[in-house]
């Protein structure tokens, strides 16, 4: 290729990828300025006992430990989280292992692989994880919502409980109604449910003697789903494909007409590039389609790179979607020229659009046509942008 635009793009992608693959840097540690004890080399952030933070607290590290007092909300993301102090606000925590042995005076929302609670939750608790357990000293003053593979509640819940899991065990007082959906539900002899127990599962709940349920016990079996017949599946797929094709046809029609109306010169230049540099357009589009997602994934692998990854993903999707218009116009232009006509941009686009969607409905081959149109249109759009940029620099417009 003679264009410097592709070399610039490929070079930028290689530099970004090499920088993101560099693993020699220490673990990322983000924390408030008032978090005075941190060890970036080990990815550890600590709020020591006796320290008070009088505002909302944010921390992201490999391990976060809170032993002091936070007079505000706490937002924590880490592989391991320990809360053994006092949070006078809400707690939002996400980690592989989350241990709460201190006090959260307001609501707590926790997600983790393993969540252990032996402290006090002043209001409501929402928790999800692979294994969830509350100790006898772990008290929830409000209502609780829990979902996990294994849920064992040995601590009291002052108000209602909504729980779902593979295995659920209740071993303390629940001061309200209990709604449970689980593979197995056991109410031990230490449990006391002040309200109704509604259970959805494969069998009946196991209620040990003298486990107490003061209200009604309602049982419902999981519904058995009927598998559709193969011909019903094929008919549904065909209808879905036709519906999607119809929506896509209308949206592409509107988008193409708008693009041609407001950017006629850019459209003509891109279609001309497709005619003159078809192979170069295909190669340029293929490079972007292959390397673009890789760069986005590398950006998303770092906490600071996630916003950039989202912007890059949105930009790449928009470019791929818009660039189809140029390739479709090129297809229509070639067809009409072959029939001895001199088409305008709108006529070429409408002709190419009909041809494109007819080809796209062909089984197996349709997917290849859609991919080829997207790749070649994207490459042509990038080459045109490169030409426009070089002309603007030559004329000292930028």
Task: Outline the low-pLDDT stretches.
Answer: 1-30
Binned, the helix content reads 40-55%
Count, helices: 7
Structurally, the number of domains stands at 2
Q: Could you describe the largest sheet, including whether it forms a barrel?
A: 14 strands, mixed
String of helices and strands: HEEEEEEEEEEEEEEEEEEEEEEEHHHHHH
Rg, rounded, reads: 30 Å
Strand content: 25-35%
Number of strands: 23
Q: Give the rounded overall mean pLDDT.
A: 82
Shape: elongated
Protein name: DUF8173 domain-containing protein
InterPro entries: DUF8173
Domain DUF8173: 235-381
Pfam family, one: DUF8173
Describe this structure in words.
This protein has helices at about 5-20, 230-260, 265-275, 280-300, 305-340, 345-360, 365-395; strands at about 30, 35-40, 45, 50-55, 55-65, 70, 75-85, 85, 90-100, 105, 110-115, 120, 125-135, 140, 145-155, 160-170, 175, 180-185, 190-195, 195-200, 205, 210-215, 215-220. The protein contains seven helices and 23 strands. Strand 2 and strand 3 (about 45) form a beta hairpin. The longest helix is centred in the middle third of the chain and has 33 residues, at about 230-260. By secondary structure, it is α/β, with parallel strands linked by helices. The radius of gyration is 30 Å and the shape is elongated. The chain has two domains: about 25-220, no CATH class; about 230-395, no CATH class. Strands 1, 2, 3, 5, 7, 9, 11, 13, 15, 16, 18, 20, 21 and 23 form a 14-stranded mixed β-sheet that branches. Strands 4-6-8-10-12-14 form a six-stranded parallel β-sheet, with no helix packed on it. Strands 17-19-22 form a three-stranded parallel β-sheet, with no helix packed on it.
């Amino acid at each position: 290729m003679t264009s410097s635009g592709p070399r610039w793009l490929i070079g930028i992608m290689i530099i970004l990828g090499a920088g993101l693959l560099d693993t020699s840097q220490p673990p990322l540690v983000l924390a408030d300025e008032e978090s005075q004890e941190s060890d970036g080399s080990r990815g550890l952030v600590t709020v020591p006992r006796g320290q008070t933070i009088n505002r909302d607290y944010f921390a992201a590290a490999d391990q976060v430990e809170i032993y002091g007092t936070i007079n505000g909300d706490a937002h924590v993301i880490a592989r391991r989280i320990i809360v053994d102090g006092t949070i006078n606000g809400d707690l939002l925590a996400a980690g592989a292992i989350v241990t709460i042995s201190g006090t959260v005076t307001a609501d707590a929302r926790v997600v983790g692989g393993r969540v252990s609670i032996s402290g006090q939750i002043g209001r409501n608790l929402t928790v999800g994880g692979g294994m969830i357990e509350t100790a006898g000293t772990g008290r929830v003053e409000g209502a609780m919502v829990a979902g996990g593979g294994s849920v064992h509640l040995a601590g009291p819940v002052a108000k209602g409980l909504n729980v779902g899991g593979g295995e659920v065990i209740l071993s303390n007082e629940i001061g309200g109604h209990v709604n449970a959906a689980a593979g197995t539900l056991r109410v031990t002899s230490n449990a006391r449910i002040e309200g109704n127990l509604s259970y959805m599962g494969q069998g009946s709940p196991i209620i040990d003697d003298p486990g107490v349920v003061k209200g009604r016990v309602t049982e419902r079996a999981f519904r058995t789903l009927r598998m559709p017949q193969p011909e019903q599946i094929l008919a549904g797929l065909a209808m879905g494909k036709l519906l999607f094709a119809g929506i896509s046809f209308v949206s592409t029609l509107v988008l193409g007409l708008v693009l041609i109306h407001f950017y006629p010169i850019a459209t003509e230049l891109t279609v001309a590039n497709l005619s003159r540099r078809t192979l170069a357009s295909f190669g340029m589009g293929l490079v972007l389609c292959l390397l673009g997602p890789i760069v986005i994934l590398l950006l998303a692998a770092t906490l600071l790179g996630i916003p950039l990854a989202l912007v890059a993903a949105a930009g790449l999707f928009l470019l791929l979607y818009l660039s189809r218009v140029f390739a479709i116009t090129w297809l229509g232009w070639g067809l009409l020229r072959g029939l001895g006509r001199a088409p305008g941009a709108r006529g070429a686009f409408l002709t190419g659009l009909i041809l494109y969607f007819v080809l796209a409905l062909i089984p197996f081959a349709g997917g290849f046509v859609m991919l080829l149109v997207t790749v070649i249109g994207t490459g042509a759009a990038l080459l045109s942008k490169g030409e426009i940029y070089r002309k603007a620099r030559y004329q000292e417009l930028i």
